[in-house]
Design brief:
This protein is α+β, with helices and mostly antiparallel strands. The protein has helices at 2-21, 25-41, 48-52, and strands spanning 68-73, 76-81, 87-89. Bound molecules: zinc ion.
């Protein structure tokens, strides 16, 4: 069952992306919601790409430039959902390793250690 659930999560992830590119945002949001529900039902981790593409509040698909806007905040990309307004900073596990993680008080110093590259 877990194998089938993982297969379906992969399919839904791709379908959400394809629907977003084709402009069908309702289908895209629906796919991310189903993706999230399968992950919860079978206690599976979502991969990194799925985590940073799903709004944690409304479950919408976050597509920068379309359904999400991205600003750099303290050296990390801060994503804002254009559907519900929820702001996400995917910084702890998704973008950084433990060594050069920016936190409180790193705003005005240690700038050379901050990795501002967005993931691909
Ligand atoms: Zn949202």
């Amino acid at each position: 069952m877990v194998r089938i659930a993982k297969e379906r999560m992969d399919i839904l992830k791709e379908e959400a992306h394809r629907a977003a590119i084709n402009g069908d945002m309702e289908l895209s949001h629906r796919c991310t919601t189903l993706h999230h529900r399968i992950a919860m039902r079978y206690n599976l981790r979502k991969d990194r790409e799925s985590r940073i593409r799903t709004c944690r509040s409304c479950g919408g698909f976050l597509m920068p430039g379309n359904t999400a806007s991205v600003r750099i905040r303290r050296g990390l990309p801060a994503t804002r959902c254009n559907r519900c307004g929820r702001r996400h900073v995917f910084g702890r596990a998704e973008y950084q390793d433990g060594r050069n993680r920016p936190g409180k008080g790193t705003r005005h110093h240690n700038r050379e250690n901050v990795n501002t590259e967005a993931p691909q």
